[in-house]
Specification:
By secondary structure, the chain is of the alpha/beta class. The chain is built from eleven helices and ten strands. Helix 2 runs parallel beside helix 4 and helix 6 crosses helix 7. The protein starts with a helix and ends in a 5-residue tail after the last strand.
Length: 277
């Protein structure tokens, strides 16, 4: 049907406004063709006669399933183990030694704020486990890992990855933290899997329901989807949620405007909350 092959400017503007207002994702006008292509099969499978009919149902849906299906198609859950590896080395060599000396109650609070299919969160868990070694049992090192995509979180919770996916990891980690699942796949061992708490969460929620502040927040390669105002608001929330001296890691393709945040630049894509005296 022609009405499913092309979305009108009015329909695109309505859909883009709904996505931005509710999920912070900014769809530029030049994304109209891409959006049409990604949604065409969905609309055809559901027997919609037009994008207007689909958007009407999307806006009125109370189950959340329609929105999840939409978000899974317009966002890219592209991630892999040790992505932007220098972040993990800096976290291991600089951040963790600092936090180990500073945290009196041995409650290390790390938030992986857009964990996708789990590779980033599990990489952090392995870095932390290796750093603390035998002392890990004396610490609470559980990582909070959140994402808006339930589909991605299901993969993360299972912890099953192909042999090719874990190829970037050190050989010692492959032996220590994974076990054979089948001929072509491995599964994360329970002692690492149980150290990551997965939750569905929308980063543009007005209120963040966290009772305690975090020592480190990873939110990498997510803000590229947001417009400037949404990005500023989110970074300010991160600032509020960080302990003094805490770190924020963002993607290397991202940067913060130093005029709109009090977070201090440390190195590319790493910022720190200035310690208040």
């Amino acid at each position: 049907m022609e009405s499913l092959r092309n979305i009108t400017d009015k329909e695109f503007q309505r859909l883009a406004a709904f996505i931005k207002d509710n999920y912070g994702i900014y769809l530029k006008p030049e994304k109209k063709t891409l959006l049409t292509g990604r949604l065409h099969n969905l609309l055809a499978a559901k027997n919609y006669r037009s994008f207007t009919e689909y958007i009407d149902d999307l806006v009125s849906d109370t189950t959340g399933e329609a929105v999840i299906n939409l978000l899974n198609r317009i966002t890219t859950n592209h991630t892999f183990f040790m992505r932007e590896a220098d972040h993990f080395y800096f976290f291991r060599d600089e951040v963790l030694p600092y936090l180990k000396e500073r945290i009196a109650d041995r409650d290390l609070r790390v938030w992986c704020a857009a964990c996708s299919t789990g590779e980033e969160a599990y990489t952090l868990a392995m870095v932390i486990d290796e750093f603390f070694g035998a002392e890990a049992a004396l610490w609470d090192t559980r990582i909070l890992a959140t994402d808006i995509s339930r589909q991605a979180l299901e993969i993360a919770r299972k912890g099953v990855y192909s042999n090719e996916r874990i190829a970037p990891l050190p050989a010692s980690w492959k032996l220590a933290y994974f076990e054979r699942y089948d001929a072509g796949n491995v599964i994360v061992k329970d002692r690492i899997k149980n150290n990551v708490i997965y939750r569905t969460f929308n980063l543009v929620e007005r209120v963040f329901p966290f009772r305690r502040k975090f020592h480190t927040i990873f939110c990498r390669n997510v803000m590229i989807y947001f417009d400037n105002d949404t990005k500023i608001e989110l970074v300010n929330k991160f600032d509020h949620l960080l302990e003094d001296g805490g770190y924020l890691f963002i993607g290397h393709s991202e940067s913060l405007n130093r005029e709109t945040t009090s977070l201090q630049y440390v190195r590319p894509a790493v910022y720190r909350k200035i310690t208040r005296t």
